[in-house]
Design goal:
- The structure holds two protein chains of two kinds.
- By secondary structure, chain A is mainly alpha-helical.
- Chain A is built from 14 helices and no strands.
- Chain B is mainly α.
- In chain B, helix 4 crosses helix 10.
- The chains are: A mainly alpha, B mainly alpha.
- At the A-B interface, helix 2, helix 6, helix 7, helix 10 and helix 11 of A face helix 5, helix 6, helix 10, helix 11 and helix 12 of B.
């Protein structure tokens, strides 16, 4: 098992290098667009531009530039925001809190509901309850996330005045601003989650050990909650861990609509104000979080499921 | 024993079997025709845009233009301040927006953008994924390692961020979105095709083809590829939905199209109108989007069940 984990750890190195290469190709190579453009104002002369390009090291050969880029990343220098002239890392540190205050409760609520419903579906598979829940899940998934957010904001905040329309507070009254985004987030994620967990539970309920448990007279509810749920935890765990990085970054759309200063909101602000260093840093950070999450999933797998260790 | 007449069991091909199964799912058939209707509307809108372009360059007369305005949703850009923000009526079934533009025309043109982009993205992603996946699965060794590294790297960057990043740098054009989404979505196809090729290259028919002296390319594309065709079709429908949804979100966020009636942009415009109580633009656009996504999703699920024998119980 240690050998496997070690190999898996080593595989992170080429992945991080790969991500840095992709990020470099997108943002700094000049293949897709001019990296100096976002630093320039509207009225700049050709000389200013040439000077800036020289200062940014854009005259160097591409290999040298990539090496510089990797060097900066390795020293954790994500660059300065061209809009706010502060270190991007400072902006990120301030954004994590607001993002988590929405995604974390929403994620816990959505996962609890989705897992419970998936167990109910598995218990009554093929019946009207199962079909009804499934149809509802597909219908929920087919509505664009934009529509949920706009409709929720319009009806619940604007018309009925149950929640503030937008904004955020870092104090104890934060829950007022957070409640509606959390509610919408739950609606957004519950459809796909439910479909996934239901498939996982149905996969387990077909297994021989379930028939054995039934045959020896174990109560149906015990079979469901103890036997099936426990074994179904493995695919659930995978999905949960893979969703973790998205919790940190938050929902880009939600944060934009509700004007919440989280990481997602910062990203979109960066896009709209043409702030390339911020967008680049967010892309990179996001990828690193996902790599770490995948690594944790694989390690959790080897601990939870002995079959993985052998192969 | 006398010679009995040989019993001939007529084989059922995957395709005819799948067609039979699909036909039995009534909901899926309905959804298929809904998708067809959207495609027809999209093509009509694209035709209307072509007439507009021809009219602007003086190649067709006013008669063709007024026909296109009436039937092909070509009047989507015509502004009329007298008609600003009118609720649905006989003349404007979906109402008008703040510039007095007909919402129905704009939604039809939005369908044109969403569907043409969705299909192009799905086709590109399936093509790239198929080529790389086939090469990885077939040749193994360093080719496989290189492809696996490539798709692990790309899939380490979350889809939204990768698309935002590419579209952000490339600019707000159709090509930009096509590149951003194709670069993102080929990964899923590649993974599945690679796995299938790994499995299929051990089959006897591959050995037989080798014995006949056929080259790698011929065996890969003439013999093995038809056996993954059903997977490619499934992936195509899945990616089609994804691309339609993604286009709306990206355009809305300001990295997608601009100055075109994309559904994302219509929704963005409609947000302010909704706050003033004008529901029609938002409602009809959302319903249009909901319709195609739901239809594609239900049809795609039925198609997968019909085509993928492993999922049959």
């Amino acid at each position: 098992m240690m050998g496997y984990i070690l190999r898996r750890l080593l595989y992170v190195v080429p992945l991080v290098l790969g991500v840095s290469l992709v990020v470099f190709l997108i943002f700094d190579s000049g293949l897709l667009g001019d990296p100096a453009l976002s630093q320039l104002g509207k009225y700049t002369t050709a000389e200013d531009k040439a000077q800036l390009k020289h200062d940014m090291g854009l005259d160097d050969p591409i290999v040298v530039r990539y090496a510089h880029f990797v060097g900066r990343i390795a020293s954790l220098d994500l660059g300065r925001s061209s809009e706010y002239h502060v270190q991007v890392s400072e902006m990120l540190a301030r954004g994590i809190g607001p993002s988590l205050s929405i995604t974390l409760p929403a994620f816990l609520i959505a996962t609890t509901i989705a897992v419970s419903l998936s167990l109910i579906c598995a218990a009554f598979r093929g019946g009207p309850i199962d079909r009804g829940v499934l149809v509802a899940a597909v219908a929920l998934m087919s509505v664009s996330s934009l529509v949920y957010i706009i409709a929720g904001q319009y009806l619940l905040a604007h018309r009925l005045d149950l929640f503030p329309t937008e904004g955020f507070s870092r104090g104890p009254d934060a829950w007022r601003f957070v409640a509606l985004p959390v509610l919408i987030f739950v609606f957004l994620t519950i459809g796909p989650d439910l479909r996934f967990y239901r498939t996982a539970m149905l996969e387990e309920i077909k297994q021989d050990y379930v028939r054995t448990a039934r045959a020896k007279g174990v109560a149906p509810s015990r079979v469901l909650f103890v036997h099936v749920l426990r074994n179904g935890m493995i695919p659930i765990l995978t999905r949960v861990v893979v969703e973790l990085p998205f919790l940190f970054v938050g929902s880009i759309l939600l944060e934009k609509f509700f004007n919440i200063p989280g990481l997602g909101g910062i990203t979109i602000q960066g896009v709209l104000s043409n702030d390339m260093p911020v967008v680049r840093a967010m892309t990179f950070i996001f990828a690193i979080l996902l790599i770490v999450a995948n690594l944790l999933t694989d390690i959790a797998y080897t601990i939870a499921d002995p079959r993985v260790r052998l192969s | 024993m006398t010679d009995a007449a040989p019993v001939v069991v007529k084989g059922v091909s995957l395709w005819s079997d799948a067609y039979r199964r699909l036909k039995r799912e009534r909901l899926a058939v309905v959804c298929f025709f809904v998708v067809v209707a959207y495609v027809v509307i999209a093509l009509m809108a694209k035709g209307g845009q072509a007439v507009n372009a021809l009219h602007a360059s003086g190649k067709v007369g006013d008669g063709a233009k007024s026909f296109a305005d009436a039937v092909l949703f070509a009047g989507y850009e015509a502004k009329d301040n007298e008609q600003s923000e009118k609720p649905p009526s006989l003349e404007h079934p979906f109402g008008t927006n703040v510039h007095g533009q007909d919402v129905l025309d704009r939604i039809a043109n939005g369908a044109g953008i969403a569907i043409v982009l969705g299909m192009s993205v799905a086709a590109m992603a399936v093509f790239i994924g198929m080529l790389l996946g086939a090469a990885a699965g077939w040749f193994g060794k360093w080719v496989d390692e290189a492809v696996v590294w490539l798709y692990s790297t790309v899939s380490s960057i979350p889809d939204v961020m990768l698309m935002i990043g590419i579209a952000f740098m490339f600019g707000r054009t159709f090509t930009s979105l096509l590149i951003a989404m194709s670069v993102t979505y080929w990964v899923g196809v590649c993974r599945v095709v690679r796995g299938e090729f790994f499995k299929l290259k051990e089959r006897d028919y591959v050995l037989a083809a080798r014995a006949l002296g056929f080259g790698n390319a011929r065996i890969m594309f003439a013999h093995v590829a038809p056996n993954v065709a059903h997977i490619l079709i499934i992936m195509f429908t899945l990616l089609f939905v994804e691309a339609v949804k993604a286009e709306v979100v990206l355009s809305f966020l300001g990295v997608g199209l601009s100055n075109e009636p994309s559904w994302g942009i219509i929704i963005q415009d409609a947000e302010n109108e909704l706050m003033r109580g004008q529901w029609w633009q938002m409602t009809f656009t959302s319903v249009a989007l909901f319709g195609i996504v739901l239809a594609l999703q239900v049809f795609g699920d039925a198609l997968r069940d019909a085509l993928d024998p492993r999922l049959r119980h």
